[in-house]
Design brief:
The chain is mainly beta. It is built from 1 helix and 19 strands.
Length: 254
Amino acid sequence: MLFSNVIPFELHKCFIMKILKNTPKNWFAGVSIVCLSTLLLSSCLKSSNNDYYNPPVAYFAFIQASPDEPPVNLFLNNNQVNFNPLLFDDYLGYVRAYTGLRTINVNNASTMTQILSDTAHLYQNQYYTMFMVNKPSTPQTLLLKDTLTQPASGKAIIRFVNVSPDAGAVDLWIQGGAKLVQNKAFKGYSAFIPVSATAGTLQVTQAGTSTVLATLPAAQLLAGSVYTIWLYGLANTTVTGEKLGINITCNANY
């Protein structure tokens, strides 16, 4: 039996393929570790002696953070992963993918012309997020390993990623409160760090200054959840849909 590069039936799992666009992004129907372990049992393969078994898998998420790209489709090797075309700043939640060396292709959803191709080695039971970044003239990928550790009581865990190609180095704040992350240049990212659960406005400033580049009002960092926060868009543009912004998604909740 030929193995595909994406686990069969993964597209039918309601929470694992949810795509968000221009919705309140201070929370996401988070991926429960317990649920993922259960869902893994739902996709089996048949060996040469007709025994069914669960193949080793990794978990792969994707964020389209390259401004001014057309709607795109994502492929792991030859298998399309997304239901609907992915727009700028769209987030595709974890899908289960076979382990080993995978080829990641991003194609123009209308013309099927290849925009970007890269490879990644995916390891069993590991979680990954890949960003498509930079301007259309020089598209790139940024692959991060996700550490989904349960936060301590009363805490959330965050990771911050700067995927704006022209904003320079930046800091992340809770407005009127603590600096959470500092001095992250383009494609720079923090570790997953514990923070106090809170609700407020997230703010990105130029590194070491009080110059505000972007804000995200009414952001909620809930106790027991793990988040990725990213700065996206362009500092130097007059196109409204490409300006700097902050996005947040929940990688896991407990």
